[in-house]
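Entry:
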Amino acid sequence: MKGEAIYKVPDGKLVRLSLELESDKISSVKIHGDFFMHPEDGIEAIEKALEGAQMGKELEAVIAQAIEANSIEMFGLNTKALAQAIKIAGENAK
């Protein structure tokens, strides 16, 4: 199932993402938006870390672990907001 979301981070930027779910697990995700990330390839590290993740509360932990492991800094976006956008895309999955 494919799902998409556009989410405005409170006091932040816009996040657009699309994902594919298989049995309530993320098989792929693409994250875009007008936020900034350093290093720039950190987005790919987060996307890769989310592959195979179960939809639900563990999303924030998976994102936080990827951020820490790859020394990623996010500007205009935070872990909670990214997890929320993923949850919205999951709810929109058809």
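The chain has a mean pLDDT of 95.
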